[in-house]
């Protein structure tokens, strides 16, 4: 009988731990869009997810900011103080050929990423620059086209002390166009 009750208690404890680990948490975001004509749109977005941390990858997945060239990981211990280039497209037909690249600092963090041009795809070469705060969190990302030294897009990020993002602002040519806040 003692063996059965011990096994039963162990089973309950394991199921409880599994449920706590995989329980989805409800997060409420206030998404404010600032229109060029001066109007403001506010939407409340309730997301039920099992993410432990609200980081930049989370915002890219759910809100498409910053996209489309955000690397899968913003840290890679394999690369230190290196630039990694990946070619895309057919090499025989130069029109479709373009490359993406990622630059890593000495701490294996992404400090820049971007693309070369693709004539048929009709996009210009662009570069994103990543700036970190003293805690090692991303503070801002700027996007500019290679033909211009001025940043066309700016993303600024504020954090809770826990390291979760609590506010994400998107600027287009120095004008705030979207703010996403965790309530």
TrEMBL record:
Residues 1-19 form the signal peptide. Keywords: Signal. The keyword Signal applies. This is Uncharacterized protein.
